[in-house]
Amino acid sequence: MKVIHLSVECFPVAKVGGLADVLGALPKYQRKLGVDASVVMPWYNRKFTQENKFDHIAYGAFYQGSELLHYEILKEANDLLGFPLYLIRIPGKLDREEVYCYPDESEQWLSFQHAFLHWLKADGIQPDLINCHDHHVGLVPFLLKYSYEFQQFSHVKTLFTVHNGQYQGWMNWSKGILLPSFDSWQWGLLDWDGVINPMAAAVKCCDAFSTVSEGYLKELFIEANGLQSLFSSESQKGYGIVNGIDTDYWNPQLDTLIDSNYNLNTVEKGKSQNKKSLCEQYKLDPSLPLMSFIGRFAIEKGADLLAEIIDQLLGNIKSKMSIFILGSGDQDIQDALQQILEKYPKQLAVYFGYNESLAHQVYAATDLLLMPSRVEPCGLNQLYALQYGTIPVVRGIGGLKDTVIDVQETGGYGIVFPEAHVEDAVQGVIRTLEIVNQVDLLSEIRQREMHLDFSWNKSAQKYLDLYTKLLK
């Protein structure tokens, strides 16, 4: 079975969020199951592309509107990721340093999708299935079926995976002229509320769509930034498959990015040593419980609540603790955290930016991880925390609700609070501190967490089962 994963992110080439982690692991686990899985993504002017060897395997050109675009296909030469990785480079479009936030983003992703299909046709590549990830590649299912240029691929099955339904790739119909020529009678499949909506087009035209947790699938029927009625009407072809994690990379016993490795038998000593190292570096007290937040400073992540949560926790004599924040994003949120940092310089440390090595050390060092998300399709941070014996304190939504069981329930190993409110999050943290301050109970919870299996093994099999169903 030949499966191509199409995405604009893949770890470690280019990572902004959890999408990259999924693409960097799922194909590897699928290949263990016998699937001929590969990844195709844009070329970025980044460390990975600069420092590794790539073979130039194809060249081509096509018109995007009146603009002639030349592309080349590069294949990573040494199988560093455990699966074939192909990059598409287009001068002026797919040759930049950052993944997002360029004013011509629509033209970027259009050129990526067109070049991908043009390459398949030119080189006679015939995949059995294309797994399209998020709106950036949402036009592919439509183009396979209704573009005159690519009719030879109309039989190819497509699975569209929704990692975040809030972002849909809207573009004005004036950009319709940039698409490969298509059957104009089918224009309605591209349209939603008067604009071209790639996510809506994908859901309408794909053979099936999946979400990254069962809980998030149900939530899309209720709230999906205007597409809830579409998801509901197409529900018969919707599937929820929770994300996994790459336990070769996220493994405290083997992790080369943390100061002290540990396993189930040495977790108490290992986390204590890692906490001591982190606290010494950032001038925090290692004798206090240590809480962390890792992620984008975005409203959907509840990051706008962080400053007030921290103020209430550190201003409360009952919750003696330290807090470490690692992330970047919204400038207003960052400014608020900077102000609260100045108020509590001995109990709070903040690292503004993305630092993969530091993230590993924080998971290994901290006692609890806070995720006050408003929207969380799956969430991977809570799974990393569990793998490292860190108690996740999460808002009960989406994939967080699917993967974290509250300690008050049988077999529970985390803390779940109901709403993305400051008061709910604070109470969740205080509940967790009561566990952290009881040595025997904390040890029991950590053992329970680290026995859990959230690897990609089960989820990769579920994807394979779905692929097989579609191909039959």
Q: From the alpha-carbon coordinates, what is the Rg to the nearest angstrom?
A: 23 Å
CATH level 1 class label of the largest domain: Alpha Beta
- What would you give as the CATH superfamily of the largest domain? Glycogen Phosphorylase B
Which structural class best describes the helix and strand composition? alpha/beta
Number of strands: 17
As for the number of domains, it is 2
The CATH topology annotation of the largest domain reads as: Rossmann fold
Biggest sheet statistics? 9 strands, mixed
Structural shape = globular
Return the CATH architecture of the largest domain: 3-Layer(aba) Sandwich
What distance lies between the first and last C-alpha atoms, to the nearest angstrom?
A: 12 Å
Set out the fold topology:
Elements lengths: L1 E5 L11 H15 L3 E7 L4 H5 L2 E11 L2 E10 L8 E5 L15 H19 L5 E5 L6 H7 L10 E6 L28 E2 L2 E2 L1 H8 L2 E4 L2 H7 L7 H6 L4 E3 L26 H16 L7 E8 L8 H9 L7 E8 L1 H13 L4 E5 L3 H10 L2 E4 L9 H7 L3 E5 L2 H6 L11 E3 L4 H15 L2 H12 L5 H16 L1
Parallel strand pairs: 1-2, 1-6, 2-5, 6-7, 7-10, 10-11, 12-13, 12-15, 13-14, 15-16, 16-17
Antiparallel strand pairs: 3-4, 4-5, 8-9
Helix pairs in contact: 1-16, 4-5, 8-11, 9-10, 9-14
Fill in the keyword field for this structure:
Rossmann fold, alpha/beta, 472 residues, glycogen biosynthesis, 6-stranded parallel beta sheet, 20% strand, 16 helices, 9-stranded mixed beta sheet
